[in-house]
Fold each of these.
Amino acid sequence: MTDLLELHKTFLSRHLREGAVAADCTMGNGHDTLWLSRSVGVTGRVIAFDIQEKAVENTSALLASENAPQNYRLLLDSHANLQLRLAEWLGEDARLDACVFNLGWLPGSGDRSVTTLRESTLAAAEAALELLAPDGCLLVAVYPGHPEGAAEGEMLTARFAGLNRREYSAICVRLVNSPASPFFFVVERSDRGRGAGK
Ligand SMILES: C[S@@+](CC[C@H](N)C(=O)[O-])C[C@H]1O[C@@H](n2cnc3c(N)ncnc32)[C@H](O)[C@@H]1O
């Protein structure tokens, strides 16, 4: 059967090339950060966020042990500060070719009290939509099996459904025969940027 995690990569890969700029808004154990770092190569850049020290430590250790290119910045900060922190690092004109959110709590930590929350998720998603380069891609994986995850999914469905079709396409991939299973959004910006498109 189709592996949804592999499908994430299928959607994102087209937007990632040597020299691209990417954001991992939920570092966790660093698997997405590592994949992004390798995908954009030494001339690319990856900015990554998590609010838990353990996540930054785990990601830092993973990237070092896997000899990831030295193209990343790991921040102990909320993804709600995406715009500010990207501008600090790469300048006001920096744009994202790819941006990934994998919502929920730190896998393997046993502590589910620290999880992504609607308010900061929405603030970060709004920033990401603004920061997407022409033909840039935002991927958000949602876990509706717990109440806050379900609420995040509903909130994002409403927000992405309201996006201007001239500027963005918004896809949702989910198992219709398993409503509590994880699902994801792929939002792509027109390759002509703001206000363009059909
Ligand atoms: C499902 S995990 C991410 C898994 C990760 N992509 C990986 O490859 O292991 C979600 C992460 O989001 C983090 N998180 C929660 N709220 C956050 C926020 N406001 N800003 C950044 N990260 C946050 C959690 O601490 C957790 O580590």
Amino acid sequence: MPAFQCRALFSAVFLLAATAGSQSGPINQPAVWAAKPDIPAFEKMEDARLAAAQRSLDQLVAIQGPRTVENTLAPYDEAIRQLNAAVNLSVLMQEVNPDKDFRDHATAMNTRASGAGTALSLNPDVYKALASLDVSQSDPATRYYVQRTLLEFRLAGVDKDDATRKRLKELNDKLTEDQAIFDRNISDDVRTIDVASASDLDGLPRDYIDSHKPGADGKIHITTNYPDLLPALTYAKSAGLRRNLWVAWTARAYPKNREVLLGMMRSRYEIARLLGYSSWADYNAADKMMVNGANVARFIGQLDAAARPAEQREIAMLLAEKRKTDPKATDVGDYEGFYLSELVRRSQYDFDSQAVRPYFPYNQVKKGVLDTAATLFHLSFRQEPDAPAWAPGVETWDVIEDGQTVGRFYLDMHPRPGKYTHGNMVPVLDGIRGKQLPEAALVCNLPEATAADPGLMEYGDVVTFFHEFGHLMHHILGGRQQWAGISGITMEGDFVEAPSQMLEEWMHSPQVLASFAHHYKTGQPVPADLVARMDRASAFGRAGSVALQNALSAISYDMYKASPQDTDPDAIPIKDFRRYTLAVPLDSDAHFYANFTHLAGYSSAYYTYMWDKVIAEDFFRQFNQENLLAGDTPMRYRRQVLEPGGSVSANDLVKNFLGRAQSMDAFQKWMGEEFATVPRGAKSGDR
Ligand SMILES: [Zn+2]
């Protein structure tokens, strides 16, 4: 998931949905994303949306006499629907349009549409109109919507004086600009390591070596892009290569982004102070489950305590592995984690991650993920081969329930020059009951199946597919609200990674895997003992990765927990890596913040992933562990967690499903138990 751009009304909606019109069926935009890029058509559509939003707001403000839900909330929500549509289409086109010129125009349009959102969040006339509504007789979802909207308005500063609001608008616009620069500096800074000969690539898979032949200068070039980087960090026997690559990777966008980050820290601190908060971390938590900065710090401490024992066992096993070739080794460097973990998985768990790839050809995995979600959520999916999308190979699918179309999604799953390089779900349209069906796009960079290549996926790739599909189901199934402003994943920003991380767990079900993981040559289902070894091996390293995620959460929090004047960005990463992880950071990690993209978007809220992982594991343990698809839990989960969208608070969603608040128990079990029963010969306390 990418970032929230500013503290406007959309906190979580921001990157979500988009399209015009009030038809009741799925809508697509052939004029905008047909084969030939049509920038004028795109800009015309976006302009029309922004104008329609403004008309609705003008109409709302002009009302004389008593205010009602019909004459005030309805036009307000129509403006939100149009603004979301505009913002989200621009986000999507910026990420995926094959034409560079189109993407540049989409970026400029996104700045405009976001600016319109900020202006609305600071509009006192609209705020006063909504605040004067009597919703005491309305349904609970409408009451909750109005209450939450008023909170967001106040957090934006709508009730401040003119000069303060003007300053807030300037700061937010500056922030939007700095965030874009921060991200662009990172994606523009691809670094390359040269190696002298193919022997330096020892240990890497054959297809990797074959695709990295020496260039005209006789040297082999390895870039810091993931498809180059991750296999090298995981499999290359050469410690020098791994170390050099790590240094290059963690140096991206430094020193350029130092000043950009400081600029964002200053803007955010000033915004927080103007609004009466002591820090950005405090302010940023105010409309989230976390509520305040002290709770973030407390959670980081709890997670540290929970991860520590299992992490100590893991690091001892990594060190023992390292000593097989380096008997004098006394510690494990952070850059060695991928490589040594792979060796431990082979030596201790008899599992080689290359062994499962033949069972994960892309097309079968896709069918498996869709079939699993269909069974789990009692839906079906139908491809619409004639519905156009923005690039060749992008698929359009409709979601069907009881013979009715209830939503639409697009699968844009493979790399393409200029495309967004990570994975995310970008909503295309908010679902509104009786008015507009939800739409969303999955934007991923997974291997592609061609006539010559089955598109074999890594274990982690399959997990990513399940994860993003979890977001997609949340958006679609949560997309039957009365209002756009509470549709889909429009809710507390620190809940949205729970449904996605929960669906990842379906990867561990032997039944689910047996249904689609068939060898691409023989068609044989993946052997049960290989699945068992894969599951055990995948449990190894969890505590270390939790510790790392916790260190990143601490970095994100520490950058924003005080005045920028008292904060040294160059000191924070090493301090937090040392405090929260047992692997030893390299000195060069000090500048890692320059390419930690989430410091722009999530800012102080990177803890979201781990907070939601705790919730996701608690949810997951409610399912029948012998058969995840069995019983009434799947439908209960759908009804109580996904379908409400943002119509109730996230805390209530959790309580409605669990019958209590979330606890750390299931998470702790996930982190340590399975792996703790297995290790042979590992002794803890080696360091
Ligand atoms: Zn996610």
Amino acid sequence: MNRKPKRVMSDIGERQFLLEIANLVSNPVLGFNDDASAIQLSEDTILVINADMLVKQTDVLPGMTYNQIGRKAVTMSVSDIVAKGVNPLGCLASVAFPEDLEVESAKKIIEGIKDQCSEYNIQYLGGDLNEGIDIIVDAISFGTCSKESLIPRVGAEVGDILYTTGYFGLTSLGFQFLLGNINLNDELKHLALESVYNPKAKIQYLSLFQKIQVKICMDSSDGLFITLNDLSKLNGMGIEISKLPIHPNVSDYAKEWKQNPLELVFSGGEEFELVFAISPDKEHQLIKEAQKQNLELQRIGSFSDKFEGIKITDEEYRECEIPKGGYEHFSSFHS
Ligand SMILES: [Mg+2]
């Protein structure tokens, strides 16, 4: 008899597993390839909801406080609501704690959840409490919007311009530093650690998105490479990067230590920056409005039908090798 060998999760990784279960999940408004889900509540109201799970073993870095753990879980979920152009209204969190976790530490996690919700001006609505072998915080956040204001991941056209809400590369250095691989000067160490210990959803950009028609948007929680690659595939076009959104201090570091700047920019993850596209005729309005609201933007490139995948035309970095990495669960390999 020809028996199929049993596969375990690490044999296939997160992305392949998602492909295999896609037909079981219904996400009628946004589609399976979105981290947020949405259902139509009435003629003009859509409920947008996201669940995002923080597990200490994979999502918590050495030196992170319990308060920061609670805060990060909220950010992971809220970021996906914000990427839809939706104002989050509330957040629930189911938590699991090991039985030997100190009560004060457990309380600090809950306080962190509450603190981050307050900072985002949303309600913390409670959730389930359970016992587990690791600290787990599963945050669920939601908001409502009209059909017109919901920003999908699909719908870009040739020539549409891509922007990010900030620079990349600091989280890569933060991870490397905490895993003991590198030395950083005081300024860079502060910036890198702040980026991994206190990540924030870019909720302040919602007021900009309400003014400008944003065609597509995605948060960069899995890393810039995966984000761009997903947007390229979903929209059936190539993406030309004419200006790499590398943090200036990271750029200096890469030069000094001869590291591949693309690796630092593309493979970090958990920046929670938003990557979005607008039509070229909206650019003037976008820049004016962003200046008015004092919001930083990085113009990184555009969609093209001349090639597939991601192409770097930024003169400073075009010779660098594009890493294929990004974060994937259950897997030691990079997608
Ligand atoms: Mg998320």
